[in-house]
Amino acid sequence: MRTRVALIAHDRKKPEIIALCRDFKEMLAQEELVATKSTGGLIEELTGLHVIRVNSGEKGGDLQIGSMIASDEIKAVVFLRDPLTAHPHEPDINAVLKICDVNNVPLATNIATARLVLGHLKELQGVKELPET
Fold first, then answer.
1. Which domain holds residue 25?
2. Is 30 exposed, middle or buried (0-12, 13-18, 19+ CB in 10 A)?
3. pTM above the 0.85 mark?
4. How many domains is the chain partitioned into structurally?
5. Residue 14 is labelled as binding a ligand
6. Residue 89 is assigned to a ligand binding site
7. Residue 131 lies inside a defined structural domain of this protein
8. For residue 36, is pLDDT > 70?
9. Could you tell me if residue 133 is inside a domain?
10. For position 64, which CATH number holds?
11. Would 79 be classed as within a structural domain?
């Protein structure tokens, strides 16, 4: 039932996630997108894509997305993190990483892997049923 693509970005990575969404806009427009509050707001404002917004990272938005992953509602996650200067109020990668690994959901943590994951999803959009993993 995995239907959504989750988008999360630390503050310093928000310009990168916006650029990524612009580059994959046509493909992402065909997906149901979910994001943390400020990331989702920026994506909507700057790309025109519709995004379901959960709480901000500091208020548990990353955990809300984790719950969706555990409920088999997320087919891929892009979590562009800033490994060098992340702030305490920003979402924590560890819980998302763990639940993605437990549920075999692809997780991209940098722009290179994000492009690979979204590129693969773009290729699969024409396929009616995805093979079970």
1. 4-124
2. exposed
3. yes
4. 1
5. yes
6. yes
7. no
8. yes
9. no
10. 3.40.50.1380
11. yes
